[in-house]
Each structure stands twice: as C-alpha cells, then as structure tokens.
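Quick one:
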Amino acid sequence: MTDWLTGLKNHGYFFDRLSEELERSRRYARPLAVIMADLDDFKAINDAFGHSSGDAALRTVGEIFHHQLREVDVACRVGGEEFDVILPETGVDGAHRAAERLRTAAESTTIPGVGSITISLGVAVFPDHADGRGLLVERADQALYVAKHDGKNLTVMAGDGQVEDERRLAIRTDPLT
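Output:
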C-alpha cells in the first residue's frame, strides 16, 4: 500500500480509496477533487544526473505533497513520475488552490546536484466535471495532458475551456501520444 521511495500510498491504494471517497461524496452530496501531477522532464533528470538523482527528485516531490496537503487528503505515487491526490470535501476553487500550492512549492525547491524542478497538474472535481470514478480520473488526466502540452509547470482544471471536445479529439488523435 505504500510506495517505498516516497512514503506515499501506491497506485492500488489510490483507486480503492477513490472509490470509497466517491461513495461518501455521493451519499452526502459533497464535492471531491482529484489532482493528477507529473514531474516535468523526469527522463532528462535521470539522463543528465543519474537515477539516484531522479530518485531524489521523486522523494522531494513526495515530501512536498506531504507538507502541502491536509491530513485528510490522500497523496499517492501511482507510477514512474506520476502522483495522484484525492481531496475529500473539496470543490473547484479549493482544488485549484491546493494544486497551485503543490506547483509553486515544487517550483521553489532546489534539489542538490539537480537544481530546480517543476510539476504539471490536472484537476477534476466531482460532481462538476464527472459523476463517476473512471470519468473523474480521465478528466484529470486530460487536464494534465493539456498542462504538459501547453508548456509544463501549469495547473489546468478540467472544464476550464481548455479541455473542450475539440481539444479532447486533438489529444486522442495526436500522433505523438
């Protein structure tokens, strides 16, 4: 259940807990936000400075998430350089503020031997952007893709007007993906 490198919860835990929190949000008619975050240019860090420096960058991101989130929030490393966060009882504005706290904390952090790092984030909120687990994760993932595509070191909200139907079509048909 715990990622050995970052100390955060893992991929399986994220999806199990998201199902539980989504059920609770439905029952009590409360919002629930999901943040998907990706460490920008992680391959370049590994290539330029070595895998131990890449590990240091991942540990640092884990620490940032631990310090910047509330006790009730659930941060997980779901793979490689991707992190997902569950924010119970959090609507659109609160989710955006939380994502920006994470982004700016990462941007202002320097890792010895590596330098500064940045993260890109996509955010989706139940029920505003999706009514089910799969669609909520998909919308956050689409927003993350837009953040990466539009220059990195950005927070993009699902439904911002940036993840409209034509953009989704472009995302799905982009030959580079």
